[in-house]
Input
Amino acid sequence: VSDNCGIASVSYAITGATTRAGSGLNASGAFAVGNSTITWTVTDVNNNVTVVSVPVTVNPAPTATISVSTPDAFCNKLTLTANSSSVITGYAWSVNSSAFASTQAIFLDNTNADGNYVVFVTDNKGCTSLLPVSYNYQKQNIISNYTILAYKEAELKEYNTVQTGSVGVMSKKGEAEIGKYSSVAAPGAFVKAPKIEAKSGSNVPTKIYAVATVTLPTMQYNSASVNNLPNFTTNQNATITLSGNYKNLTVRRGSNVVLTGNTYGNINIEEGSTVRFTSTTINVEHLKVGKGKDNGQTVVRFADNTSVRVAKHVQIEEDCFINPDSYKVTFYLGRQSSHNCNSHKGGDRDDDDHDKGHGDGDQKFEVKGGNTTVIANVYAPTGDIKVKGGESCHKNHVATTVRMTGLFIGYEVEGEGKNVIWNNYTCGSAMPMPEVNNTAMVVGEEQDADIKLDVKVLPNPTLTHFEMIVSSDDKQTPVQIRVISGAGRVLNAMKATVGQRVQFGQEYTSGMYVAEVVQGNKRKTVKLIKGK
Output
């Protein structure tokens, strides 16, 4: 401030969101959130007065909240999402005082540390939240960290491998049994049950002797009536679309059938058939998927986010592929009752309703036989989940592996026979992608060094199609081939013999793919490149 005659006085007054007054030029200090105006009044020695006003705006600091994914998501990770009513341009997550991520959402699984996950947000005006919001993460209490959950008993006999996820038992009298040569040993995984019996030769690095206490998904029940519905049987090798609902439906062998209805009594799918359901809610009393024939699998496809409400029984035999598209599909097995899966008398998690509902003999999800893949969640609070692999039930060949990918919740969950592989479901990519490197050669590991397994693909890269030839010292065991997209979706599932030329990929778009080749206990993967 200057004046030719000299300054007599300077004063200021602040009005609006902030109110205060004083003398001098310095009006600094704390300002409240909102719009304020500083007005200076300057008087010279001749009593001339000048008034100057300056607006001051203090934007409110953003506030954040955290939303948490629910058990109904049926995913293998817990999702924490930072939200705000402000326009946010930055996120700062930390865990236990260490920086963690700068994204809006974070995804937590068994490999992440327990503790408080804290987030600050910054808005488009550069303001950062004054107070953090946090979520206390305890992996043992999160359903997404489990692959197998049982009310009474989780029994994995010999040669069961839980490749991803943990195993838990949810009642105080429950037991987990891990057989010889079986393992629950993924990074961060554990077995949690009041009683744990790990047989000699098993691999269970982390055992927690307590009840697995988790919030369960919302149960869905089949309340549909099949009274007065018609019966239908297709011809063999038929190609047909059926738009109705049926009391009894038989799909004869070798058929290709599209089902657009949503209510069925009994469905019997015979060997070598492909059936696709288009409805996202399916009510069925009994579903049987028959064993595939030697030159193909029995395949059942679904739409994405499908609920299959089963009143009684699901039976899946050898050489079957359930949900090869890797969509999120959930089988809800049980009858309507007043039972609340998340309510337990006295808080002891030994709810008698489970025992009352169990034992009817027909509430089962059964997989019998090798060379079968199931990509689906199974929720059977009063029913049993039984999976059987091994040569004893697979007389045609020795490709005995059963692959179960999903979240499996049952009164009892049992894996018996040999070569049962369990994985949890990764939303958007149910099948873990095989590891690849930057070459187009075989990159997977051969599991049996005594028997040579070679895979050649020519041309690779290609502009048209791929041609694969598998050579092996074992000339008798059939070869299983799966082609997986870069997004983790299974595009083809084929069976071949050693030395057979297999052509595929004509319809593929340009990009990178992975072919997985399995013969018995041997496995190799090949990176494939389709050009434009």
